[in-house]
Specification:
Layout: E1 2-9, H1 14-30, E2 34-52, E3 55-68, H2 71-83, E4 87-95, H3 100-103
Antiparallel strand pairs: 1-3, 1-4, 2-3
Helix pairs in contact: 1-2
InterPro entries: Ribosomal_bS6, Ribosomal_bS6_sf, Transl_elong_EF1B/ribsomal_bS6
Keywords: Mitochondrion, Ribonucleoprotein, Ribosomal protein
Pfam family, one: Ribosomal_S6
Length: 115
Amino acid sequence: MLYEIIGIARPGNLAEVKEIVLSAGQIILRNGGVIRDIKNWGTFRLPKPISRHQVRYTKGHYFIMRYDSGIKTHQEVKETLAVDPRIIRAGGVKLGDGTLMNTIRFGEIPWRKFE
C-alpha cells in the first residue's frame, strides 16, 4: 500500500529533522518497503499553538514522506514518530486502494509557496 506521513518537528534544527526522517526511513526499508518521495517543507507557523512534552509551540518544521509498505510497517513508523520527543505532531494516511492504476496518479508531492 502507498502511505503518506506529514510530520511537524521542533523548529530551528534541520539536523533533527534529517535524523527523524532517517530513522523512519530505516524502519520502512528494513521491513521491505520502498520510499517514494521525501519533501522538506520548512518552518511555518502552526494553525494554533500546540503543547507537547511540556513545551508550547507556535511554529513547526514540516516534512512529508510517501512510501510503499505493509500495514504493520506503517503502524511501526507512526508509533515511532509518536514517541519521539522531537516531533510535535505526525499524521499518516493510505493513498489509493493499492492497485497500480490508482496509485500511479499520486505523482510528486506538490507544494505551492504562499506569498
